[in-house]
Amino acid sequence: MKARIAELEKELYYSLDILLSVSNMKRSTYYYNVKKPAALDKYAEVKASILEIYEKSNKTYGYPRISKVLEKLGYTYDRKTVYKLMKELKISSLIRVKKRYKQGRVSHICSNKLNRAFTSERPCLKWVTDVAEIKINNEKVYLSAIMDLYNREITAYSVSKYNNEEMVIDNLKQAIDKTKDTTDLMIHSDQGILYQTNQFRKLLKENNIEQSMSRRGNCYDNAVMESFFATLKCELVYINKFKNIEQFKYELEKYIDFYNNYRIKANGLTPLQEKDSYLVA
Known about the structure:
Elements: H1 2-11, H2 16-23, H3 27-40, H4 44-56, H5 63-72, H6 79-89, E1 126-136, E2 139-148, E3 153-160, H7 165-179, E4 186-189, H8 198-206, E5 210-213, H9 223-237, H10 245-261, H11 271-280
Parallel strand pairs: 1-4, 4-5
Antiparallel strand pairs: 1-2, 2-3
Helix pairs in contact: 1-2, 5-6
Pfam families: HTH_21 (PF13276), rve (PF00665), rve_2 (PF13333)
GO molecular function: nucleic acid binding
Protein name: IS3 family transposase ISEnfa3
């Protein structure tokens, strides 16, 4: 009613006194309700931006990351305000439960040269790799991935119904082809049998890639890859129902693109942005 009175006043040039008289409304009531929507919509614009950012992150961003994106968009709201607005919108980041691992006995087939030094001075200096088992409609599928420790980019990945040598070798070949220059490169993995095969180690030697392995039974020696797979399962696998493995592969490709190009890290940059900043420096 209040909005219609305002429209009639503008469109038909009736005086406000006449309109208020016809509608039997007090002048104070009219002005209160005209001003009220502006107060209610104080955060309307930023709320719309928050929802857009949240959806683009596959509903995985919490208020710290959303605050960083908003800052890049020119908003000046602090984290507490963003947190409050997200509560009003009834949205929150998906939270995964951290697993606890027991440390097994130490055994060395290849020494732990990385030694938990999970930072790198430049791209293509330190890679980490691992294989994850994922269930799609009670059917197992295996994902092999290689990450560059400089910017935490997923350099290459391979999916197979079988946890075999061909999968990890295909993954390694993809990464080498993308990189071209493997000077001083080291790759770190656990002591899985797939990384001990002659063909895998031969491929490393042919490309002058140094091999490093975690201590047996110590997942923390490859914590970055463990963390990536936990994130992937939380942000992709657990929140979706895939009809089949082919659909999973399709969605996985989209997720890896999101992870490398759009998902911001604690420093406010995506993996590719961090890599680009190094290349132009």
